[in-house]
Structures are given as structure tokens and as C-alpha cells.
Amino acid sequence: MTPPPPPPPMLLPLLLLPLLSPGPALGLLPPVPSSSSSKGSVGGKGSVGGGGGPRPIDPAGWPQRFPAKEHCSRCGLCETALVSRVSDACAFLGPGMGRIDALEAEVHGRGRDGTDLAWGGGDRAAVPHAEEGRFGVLHRPVALARGTEREAQWTGVVTGIAAAVLEAGMVDAVVCVAAGDGDGDGDGDGADGGGDWSSPEPILARTVAEVMRGRGVKPSLAPSLRVLDEVRADPAVRRLLFCGVGCAVQALRSVEADLDLDELYVLGTNCADNSPTPEAARNFLRDGAGIGDVGGVRGYEFMQDFRVHVKEEGGGYTKLPYFSLPGTIAEASIAPSCLACFDYVNALADVVVGYMGAPLAPGGRMDRSSQTLTVRNGRGARMVDAAIRAGRVTVVAERAGGSGSHEALASATVAKDAAVMAITGGDIPERGMPRPLGELMATVLGGIGPKGIAFARYSLDYHVLRNHLHTLHEWGEDRARSAMPDYARSIVDRYVREDAQFQAVREAVLAKGRKKREGRP
Ligand code: FAD
Ligand code: SF4
Ligand code: SF4
């Protein structure tokens, strides 16, 4: 395949939508907030919250009172008695996501085969474990699937699997994220001023009707693990399905034994660049995408066609090229944790659903396009098979295809990324491209850029490289390196070795970091 040429230099500044917050350096690890020690220290089922056990952290103190401070992704663990396990479990303390390698072998029975990172693109169908280097342990090749849920984010593959697993009696309850009212009780009653599609409210769903409340992505950090105290307190919950993003799944895997469950199934989504709060997500739509009636929005995604698609009540869409968004909107729109994240693909879930490697349906509607389905182990296969038997999910292709190489575009994107320029001192554009030019740019890149699974490789490499630069600046070389799983180190090392543009940007970030540590401007 011919590599797609990088976009014309004059257009590069627009290539990158994502912004970033430089955020204060973490420095030394913060103290763990409680003294109670490891497994089972807060008792098994029915004994949560008694006596002088560890005290959950009040969410009103987020992020400063949370151990990971600015880089806390608010996974919810610290809002439970299991806060005692935070030092080992948190994805942003100590080696953080560097723990994924060992956990992956524990959870799936083997680590991923990272020998082939599909450099230069090409069809890898005949290469065993070809995509594992980037996409994690594969029990089956990454497939394409569709669900049947009308009010879902895409076609409801996630909700279809969760509902089928519950209906089949495989679990007693499902943890998912409903649209809440922000008052923390999970009833969505609007007690604090009205229900809101953008406010995540983790719930323990015991019926299919409750599982349906999870439909749709609420685009901000969700404290999914907050319900673990409820799980532990309820003797009727012996088998659990947890739906969540990578940082929460990593913490969950680290405390799995403390839950004293007979069975735990984990259904993950891909995840990148989440908003810190519902308010930040709404501001992005209002100030970045120019949506007047944010209350009429039902969801949005950054799509494979280089446009953000905003789904409106009634089924309409507004689509805006990335290149027409103001660069300055990114800083407030992406949580600092997500700039230090190396688990886009949710490596520790049993099965993962996303969209970045799937082709868009004609017309580009997310509610008609297929989604990627990544099965990592036998538990994941049983979940998917239950959903297929129930008619809730259909596999439309056993293997996701794709074409094009991605390396030049990933490197060009990083070099002009607003988060990176905030470190190196580049000019972040206050205004995006004029709309017609932005549309042209999106159309051209959509035409010549990587497609399908190759687009997913592009997106993954871009996030790994950008986040490496962020952590390098925030934490210095040693900690930044140890906080990456092996696959991310391999990707970074390859660009350092072979990509002059990335080498130059990395050098600029290192120089800024040295100055910062020496207290020089
Ligand atoms: P639905 O059936 O509508 O179910 C949605 C599921 O998402 C439910 O299980 C619900 O519990 C869960 N959920 C909703 N809000 C949150 C939240 N804030 N945190 C955790 N879980 C939540 N895919 C990509 O390929 N690239 C991305 O960059 C990407 N970013 C994502 C960011 C977030 C915060 C989330 C939650 C998902 C992201 N995804 C991404 C996955 C994608 O957006 C869809 O979730 C996925 O394709 C499933 O669509 P669906 O129609 O099957 O989901
Ligand atoms: Fe606690 Fe989770 Fe935040 Fe880490 S990310 S500090 S475990 S709430
Ligand atoms: Fe968590 Fe990473 Fe998603 Fe941010 S991008 S919410 S840190 S999984």
C-alpha cells in the first residue's frame, strides 16, 4: 500500500483537535488515605461499611483530595471502602498502567503477542495474533457486529450483550452507567435540578429495564466502581457483569478477589479523551461545536471521517469537521487522566466494543454502522454467544478489514496537537478553519487516509505518542516509561527510532521538562 501523504503543511495546524491541559506535575505519590490493608480487609459480602473501616473519599473533594490528584480519572474506587487498595489498584499511581502486562496474563491466561505491530499497513489476515500488539489479547479476530437497540450510542451491541447475559441467568446484576441527575443516588429523579443525558450515574441494574438505562455514552468521567460497596453488601449478587472503560476495569481487576464473587464478567468499551465533567462536555458542544440547544443533544462522537457527529433528539445529526473546531477548546475538554492513559483498547476486559476500526455505513450514521467486537477469552465468548442466541447482536464480519499505512499521519497529528503545543509553546489556533475548508480537509483525509483497522492503528498510535509526551513532561522519563505497558513502549520506541518529526517533538518536550524541573521559564 502507498502510505498516505501527510496533509499539506499549511493545513497541519488544523489537523489536531485535541487540546490539552498542561496540569500541575504530580511529584511524589500522595499518601494512601487509609491504613486498612489488602484482600478482604473490609470484610466479605454483607460487612461493608461497618465499624472503623477505611473511609471513602467525599466526591466533593475531587480531584485534589484523591490520591492521583489531577490525574485521577474518578473511576469510583476511592468512593468505596476499597479505597484501602488504591496504591495497588489505581491506574495512575506508581507504575499505573504499566501493571497491565502482568494483569493481562493473569486475567486472560496469557499476555498479548506483540511481535507484529503491523508497521506499514497491509493485510495481516494470515498472520497469527497479527493485531494483538495494539489491540490486546485476542481469543477471536477483531470482528464487526451490530445490535438492535434504537436509543443506544451506536447500535447497542454493549446493551444487547448486557441484557442477554442477564436474561440468560448468567449473572445476578449488571453495573452500567445511566443518565443521572448528579445527586449520586442513581435514581435519575432529577433531585438536583433535572435529569441530563450528559451526567453519568453508575447503577447496579437487576432487571433488563434497568440495563436499558445504560444506553448511550455519557461523555464524562464516570465513577463506575462506586457501586462496589453495594455489590459487596448484597448477598444476592454472586455473579456480576461490569460494563466500563479501561481505567476502571484495571482497578476492578486489582480488587476482584475482594469482591468474593462466584463469577465476574467484564464488558468493556474502547475509550479515549473523555471530558472531566458533564459541564465540560456541554461547554465543548456549545463553545467548540457551536451547538445552540445543548439540551436537545443525545450524544456525540469523534468519528472516522474526521468529523465530530452530534446526535440530536429526534434522530438528526450535526456534523462538524475536526479542523473547524477551535484549538483552544481542547484543554478544558479532555481530562488530564486521559492524557496519561495507555489503555484505549481496554486490555483487561473479557470482551470490548468500540468503533474506531469499523467502516461507517453509507450516510455515516452511527446508529446504522457496525461496531468492532474484540473477544479476549472464553468468558467474553460466552457473553457474545448469549447475545447472538438471543438475537440481540449479529456478527456482520468475522474479521475487521482495513487498508493504508498510518505512521506518517500519526506523527504529523502529534506534532500539531494542541496538547503537545501547550508544552512546547506552539501557537494554538483560537479559531478553526473556515467550514468549507474544514469540510474539504476532512473529505481529502477521509479519502486518502487509513481505513478500517488501519484507521484504528492510526488513532491508537496517535494517542500513545501524545500521552507519552504528556507523561514525559509531567513525570519525567523514568516514571513515564514505567507507567506504560510494553506495547506502548514498543510503539514509542519505533517512532523515536524511525520518525525524525517525532524525535524533534520529543526532544522539545524533554527540554521543556528539564527547564521546568530546574525552575527556569
Ligand atoms: P450502548 O448500548 O449505548 O451502551 C453504552 C454503554 O456505555 C453502557 O454500558 C454504559 O454503561 C456505558 N457508558 C455510558 N457512559 C459511560 C461513561 N461515561 N463511562 C463509562 N461507561 C459509560 N470507542 C472508540 O472506538 N473510540 C473512542 O475514542 C471511544 N471513546 C469512548 C469514550 C467513552 C467515555 C465511552 C463510554 C465509550 C467510548 N467508546 C469509544 C466506545 C463507543 O463510544 C461506544 O460506547 C461503543 O461503541 C458502544 O456503543 P453501543 O451502541 O454498543 O453502546
Ligand atoms: Fe482513586 Fe480511581 Fe482516582 Fe485512582 S483513578 S485516585 S483509584 S478514584
Ligand atoms: Fe479512563 Fe483512559 Fe477513558 Fe480517560 S481515556 S476515561 S483514563 S479509560
In words, what does this structure look like?
With 521 residues, the protein is α+β, with helices and mostly antiparallel strands. The chain has a domain at 59-273 and 343-397. Helices cover 33% and strands 13% of the residues. It contains 18 helices and 13 strands. It has helices spanning 12-15, 86-89, 100-108, 132-135, 157-167, 208-212, 228-233, 246-255, 278-288, 330-333, 378-389, 407-415, 418-424, 435-448, 453-475, 477-482, 486-498, 500-518; strands spanning 143-147, 173-179, 200-205, 239-244, 263-269, 297-302, 307-312, 317-321, 351-354, 371-375, 393-397, 402-403, 451-452. The strands form 3 sheets. Strands 3-2-4-5-9-10-1-11 form an 8-stranded mixed sheet. Strands 6-7-8 form a 3-stranded antiparallel sheet. A two-stranded antiparallel ribbon has the order 12-13. Helix 12 runs parallel beside helix 15 (453-475), helix 15 crosses helix 17 and helix 15 (453-475) packs parallel to helix 18. It is globular. Mean pLDDT is 87; it is low at 1-43 and 190-194. The site of one iron/sulfur cluster (SF4) has 13 residues, from helix 8.
Question: In terms of topology, how is this protein built?
Answer:
Elements: H1 12-15, H2 86-89, H3 100-108, H4 132-135, E1 143-147, H5 157-167, E2 173-179, E3 200-205, H6 208-212, H7 228-233, E4 239-244, H8 246-255, E5 263-269, H9 278-288, E6 297-302, E7 307-312, E8 317-321, H10 330-333, E9 351-354, E10 371-375, H11 378-389, E11 393-397, E12 402-403, H12 407-415, H13 418-424, H14 435-448, E13 451-452, H15 453-475, H16 477-482, H17 486-498, H18 500-518
Parallel strand pairs: 2-4, 4-5, 5-9
Antiparallel strand pairs: 1-10, 1-11, 2-3, 6-7, 7-8, 9-10, 12-13
The site of one iron/sulfur cluster has 13 residues, from helix 8.
